[in-house]
Write a structure and sequence with these properties.
Keywords: ATP-binding, Nucleotide-binding, Transport. InterPro entries: AAA+_ATPase, ABC_transporter-like_ATP-bd, ABC_transporter-like_CS, ABC_transpr_LolD-like, MacB-like_ATP-bd, P-loop_NTPase. Belongs to the ABC transporter superfamily. Macrolide exporter (TC 3.A.1.122) family. This protein is an alpha/beta fold and 240 residues long. It has a single domain, classed as 3-Layer(aba) Sandwich (Rossmann fold), CATH 3.40.50. Helices cover 38% and strands 27% of the residues. The protein has 8 helices and 10 strands. It starts with a strand and ends with a helix.
Length: 240
């Protein structure tokens, strides 16, 4: 198996000088390439904190996080920025698209930071918008797109740099049932056809039902880690 994420004894502590509060408490987490995993638990359980540390947006107070064997907890601030740019894709609950840019320009922006040539950027953008079924919306600004469409553009942006994996923090929270279903269909297809690794932080049962592994956090600790056969995965097996 090809290990993508390996977190060893990771903790994040607040109020260290008074009464310590562990947002994440001695967590060990190992993900292989191609997994489709939901990180679940009640509000305040540490899901987003753990996701942010894996994504290099925050540093653990204890432990180490390896991405493809690289210990990101030992990187300098500048090296970490470059590492995120080239290795990790993010999908946020609030979309985080740049309002003055078109859908195409939002997706292209990551590749510009990577100094990818215009010809290659255009080819990649066209491929991604075909994958998210939004070829006709390339030149629309976010204000002209529905919530579901904006989140699909956010997925395309996360994929633009060809990252090692995608971290998705409550990606369906602001979407209606149809939009959420369409988005999950796209991500499940990308996972199946391109072996893209997804790690979700979610309360949404719709996401949990699609996951093939569900990790439950309570008070910053992993209390359950279960591999499951989702309904959609079972249907795939029956058809093959």
């Amino acid at each position: 198996m090809d290990t993508v994420i390996d977190a060893h004894n990771v903790s994040k502590v607040y109020n260290k000088d008074t009464i310590p509060v562990y947002a994440v408490n001695n967590v060990h987490l190992h993900l292989e390439r191609g997994e489709f995993t939901a990180l679940v638990g009640p509000s305040g359980s540490g899901k987003t904190t753990l996701l942010n540390m894996i994504g290099g947006l925050d540093k653990p107070d204890e432990g180490n996080i390896y991405i493809n064997g690289q210990d990101i907890t030992q990187l300098s601030a500048n090296a970490l920025i470059d590492f995120r740019l080239r290795n990790i894709g993010f999908v946020f609950q609030s979309f985080n698209l740049i309002p003055v840019l078109t859908a195409k320009e939002n997706v292209e922006f990551i590749m510009q930071l990577q100094k990818i040539k215009r010809k290659d950027r255009d080819a990649r953008v066209n491929q991604l918008f075909k994958q998210i079924d939004m070829e006709e919306k390339l030149n629309e600004r976010p204000s002209k797109l529905s919530g579901g469409q904006q989140q699909r553009v956010a997925v395309a942006r996360a994929l633009a740099s060809k990252p090692q994996f995608i971290l998705a923090d409550e990606p369906t929270a602001n979407l209606d049932t149809k939009s959420a279903s369409n988005l999950l269909d796209i991500m499940a297809r990308l996972n199946k056809e391109e072996n893209i690794t997804f790690l979700f932080s979610t309360h949404d049962q719709r996401v949990i039902d699609r996951a093939r592994r569900v990790i439950t956090l309570v008070d910053g600790r992993i209390v359950n880690d279960t591999s499951v056969v989702s309904t959609s995965h079972m249907e795939d097996k029956l058809h093959n």
